[in-house]
Every structure is written in structure tokens, then in C-alpha cells.
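Table S7 (text form). Paired inputs.
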Amino acid sequence: MQQRVRGRLLEAVRSVEFLAAIAMFLVAIPLHYPEQLLPFLDIEAPSSVLGLERLAVERLFLLLPITYLGFLFGMKAGLTGSGLALAIMLPNALLISEYPADALGEVGGVVAAGAVINIGFERLRRERERRRVVGEQLRVSEERYREIFENAHDAIWLQDMAGEIIMANKACAEISSYTSEELVGMNVRDFLSEEALDKAREVRRKLLAGEAMDGPYEQQIIKKHGTQARLWLTTSLIMSHGRPRAFQLIARDITEQAHMQENLNFYLHQITRAQEHERQRIAQELHDETAQSLMLMAQRLDSLASTVGQWRHEDMAADLREVRGTAVEALIGLRRLAHDLRPRILDDIGLVPALEWLADDLTQQDGIEARVEVDGTLPRLSEEAQLLLFRIAQEALRNVGKHSGATEAVLSLQAHDDSLEMRVADNGRGFTLPRDVGDLAATGKLGLLGMHERARLLGGALDIHSKPRRGTTVVVELPVSAVNRQVPKGGSARRRRPAS
């Protein structure tokens, strides 16, 4: 370290700039001591130099090397120059000058002026160094950002406030089928349909208004050759000096996943429909064949018991009546099973009476006071939507009867502008919900998972709110625009509540 400092010092001493500063000091010495030195040099002391008084030139030749050294080599060199100027001027002020006080003032003025100028140079040098360091850090940061930007697996692009693309990475080029060079300068309107453009404008409005975005959103773009891609998109606003300057968009291509999900939803839809059709067939067969056979058997046994009773075979008559009772119980159970598989009331008179039948059954079977409330005029739902809502309500009320320990349950339907909300609430013991819907299967709550899947098939959402000792509420939100509208087959709700 010392050798390095010594080497830099020797290099500075040998430099032309240092020699020029020393030359200025050497010129200043005879100018400061004209009566003592100039006669030896056979030079007459000038009264002025270059139109300036000799004293002014003398002070200038002392001040210049001080500031010159400070500017070139830093504060320490400037202070060294001030020390040299002080060594040159002080003997004259103390020993030669007729006015030592004035001379000392001049000495102090030169040294102070040099120190002030050197301090200014030092601050300027530090500011330049700070800017150099910040610039270097910024350059490194930009290089790292560009490296991350270019090699990111997700598509990233920047667009100005008018929608013109400023930068686009390789993944963006792969998604759009354009090259990165082709993308720069294009406008995002070239990739968006009217519907997608409306969604982009809404996102822009929210960001500029400072509204929070609810996470990523789905968007569709038109690729170079006219095909479409579905993206999972995140948009953020880039600010500069308090003003919006651009938008940064990060996208992931979910076209394949979306197609797979649509296929999965289609298969689930078909499976659910086939399951309901099979239930309907089995229920019909049980009702039309097996139940009729049991009814005829009960009637025949009743007739035989009456005939045997007339013959006074009391023991045989009692046995026949017992067998008849068993047949009647089997018939009741069979009818209940057929209703559970596919209640005819849903097909015959509609959703609300079927839900009321579920509530009445819960009251009769489990002693839980249950009621149905309808708020407003319900939208006209397709048969499939009515069926899936019925199944969700059936599972929810079955859970109330089996697990809740409740004394009261309310099933409510409320119509909104473009949606229908169904709630099933009880005052039972409640339970602790898992963090994720996928955990329902792991905890054995397959019925709740099935309710979620049915709601999703309708394009809706199901939420469950429950806490220990605070009851449970199941909420289904169904977008009416996502289902087929048709005139219901009839039926009106009993126990209706006036629309508010």
C-alpha cells in the first residue's frame, strides 16, 4: 500500500502539471521580493504587468498554483500549495514590510481564498465521484435487468402511455410469433380484439387511478398468423418524477393449460350429466317397477291377512301383517331413495318447491327447523343450472342434518342484476376450514369438494364460512349470463319474503 502511494506521489511530482505549478511559485517569489531579488537579476521592478498592478500579479501567481494543485491532485495538494504560498509571503510580512498588519492580512487573504477554492474543487470532485459510482451502479443494474429481462421464461414487454412497445424479450417474441425487433414500435392494439382492448383499457384506468389490481388476469392476444393465445397477465405502472411514463407487462402463455382445463370441464360436465341421467333412470325404474311391485305385495299380504283372519288363524294373520309392515317400510325407504336419486318435484314444478321439499324433509327427519326464503324475482335458469343448485343445496342440508348439531337452518335465494346468490346457513357447532379447497379431500370432506366442483361447472363460485361454535354458511354465487335462460316449468315458493 505504501509503495503504491509512493509511486503515485512520484508520478504526480514528475508530471507536467506539477512542474507548471512549481514554475508559478518560482515566478511569484521575485515578484513578492522585488527590491531584494530583482536587482541581483539585473531587472528593474515593474510597476505593472500586462496592465495589472504588480501586487495583483504577485497575488495571482501565488493563488494560481494553489488552486491548480487542488484542482489536479486534490485537497491535500491544494493545502500543500497554500503552505508553500504561506512560506513565500510570511517572511516579507513579518520582517520586511513597513506595514506588517496589512501584509499579514494579504497573506491570510491569499491563503483563505486558496482554501475556499480548494474546498469547492473537493466538493465538485466528490460529487463527480458519487455520480460516477451511481452511474456505474446504474449501468450494472441495467445490465442485470436486461439479462433477466432477455432470459426470463415469462414474456415481458414495456409499452409507452400510447400503447407503443418500447422493449420486448425473447419469450414475448415466442408467444406473439413476431421477432423482438418487429415488436418494438408496434402498438398493442395490433394484438387485441375489441373485447380484449376493452379489458386493457379498464386495467389502464385502474392503474392510473391508483386502484389495486386483484392479481393477474386473463387476456387474449392475436398472434402474427391470426391464431389466438391466452395469457395470464400482470400489468404494472412505471413512474418517473411522480408522473406515469410506461407500463410493464409480464405474461405467461396458458393456451394449452386453458384448453386442457376446458376439456376437463367438458368431461366433468358430461360425467355429471350422465350421472344425473343414470340417477333419473334408476329412480324411474324404482318408482315405476320395484315400488309398484312392493305396493302390490303389500296389498296382497293385506288381503291374505284379512282372509286368514276370517278363517280364525290368528297366528298366521299376525305373521302376514308383520310381513306387510316390512313391505310397507321397504316401500317407504325405496321411495325416499328414488327421491334422493332424482326428485320428481324438481322436474315437475321447479327449483324453489324442490328446495322447500328439502327443507321440510330436514325438519321431519332431523328435527331441525328449516325454511326457504326468496328475495326478489329469480332469473330464468336452465334445467342443468337448477339441477346443480339443487344438488349443492341437498349436500349442504345433508351436512347440516348429519354433522352440525344445529337447531335452525335457512336456505335463501337472492337475485342480483346479473347473478343469483344461494345461501345455506345454520346455527350449529361449525368447524375449522382448511386453507385450500384442495385440502377438503385430504380431510375427508368430499361432499364440500363436490359442491365446489358443481359451482365451478356453472361458471360460479362457492365460499364456505365457518368457525367453531359459530355455525356454517355456504354461499353460491352464480353468474346468470353464464347459463342458458329458459322459462321455468312453474311453481312458486311458499314462505316467500317480500322483495326489499
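Next pair, protein 2 of 2.
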Amino acid sequence: MAAKGGRKYRLILYEYMLNRWWPLTLLMAFFIFLNVGVLWGAEWYFINPAENPLPIISNIGGTMMLTMGFICLLFSLFLLLTRKMAYVQLFDDHLRLATPFLRLNISYKRILRTTTAQVLRLFPPKSLSGWRRDLIGPISNNTATVIHLTAYPLPRVTLSLFLSPFFFYDKTSHFVLIVDDWMAFSQELDSRRVAVKTPRQPPKPRITSGLLDDLNRK
């Protein structure tokens, strides 16, 4: 039977990131469809091509632009649907880190310690480029939980391909987690880690009444 996980804590960094991107790709799709529609509409309206003030677009060119528009539209829907699918969930013996592009299980045995810090202190604005500073700005006052590890479950290079750079603030083995309720997450994580480290006591043997009578006779 699969272990039952606890509450899913949303990774609000992904929600902020995707909330910035999906309107842009949706707007791009809208302008592509509008452009093709206007150009083809002008060709239909002006029977004489010499009277058409707009550029002539071929059927192949129009089809390619429509394909790009549909790709942008589908990508916008994907971002819209997955913006709240990034989360951290705690199980009895491991932590699950799930993003739209990666699902990673991290054993509690890999965790050395956990600390908390303000996002602003982990990622000072002066050390960030323009787009990164704008991205982290709305949540810079949030509290992040930093999980320090003995080693990464995957190579750092591989993790960097699938995770935001804001999961890492230096070269050590760690993850920076910015969740929707850092206090509850930290408490639950500490509780589950303590439960793993505490050895379970073997059950005491039960003495039945028949065995007790035999001992009394002796």
C-alpha cells in the first residue's frame, strides 16, 4: 500500500512566474490570428489585387502563421492550467518536490538541517539582473525554507535544466522552497524527520490468562 502524503504546499514562485508568461503568449496568439484574418479578409474584400493596400499572404504562409498561433494558444492554456501544480508534499520517509517539468523524491536521510530566511536576503536585488529582479520582486518579503542536503539526488546541472534558478542561492547542496505557508511546512517537516530518526519500540509480549495460570502454578 502506497504511503499517504500530507498537505500539498504550493510553490508560489511558479505561480508568479507563470502568471507573467501565460498572458503574453495568449496575446501573441491573438495578434497572430488577427494578422492572418485581416490579411486574408483584405484579399477577399478587394477583388482587384492592385487595390489592396495590405501585403498579400500566400496560403502556405497563412497556414504557417495559424499553426504558430495555435501553438501559442495551447502553450498559454498549458501554463494557465499548470501554474498551481508546483508543490512540496511530505511523506513518512521522503519529501516530494513537484513542478510542471520535474518530480523529485528526496529522502529525509539526505537532509542535514533546515533554516528559514527572507527571500530578499537570499537573493539581494543588487545581485540580480533586470528580469530576475522584476520576477522575484513581488515575493521578496516572503519567508523561504532552505533545505540543506548531504548531496543532491540528481546532478546539479540536471536540476538546473528543470528548476528555476531561485531554488539555489549558492554552490552548496540545498533547495530554496518558497511555499504558501512556510511555518506549517517547517513544523510538519521537522515532525516527520524526528519520527524517522526515533526508533520504534518493539511491542511487548502479551501474556494470556492460560500462560499466567501456568506461571502461578510454578
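The chain has a mean pLDDT of 84.
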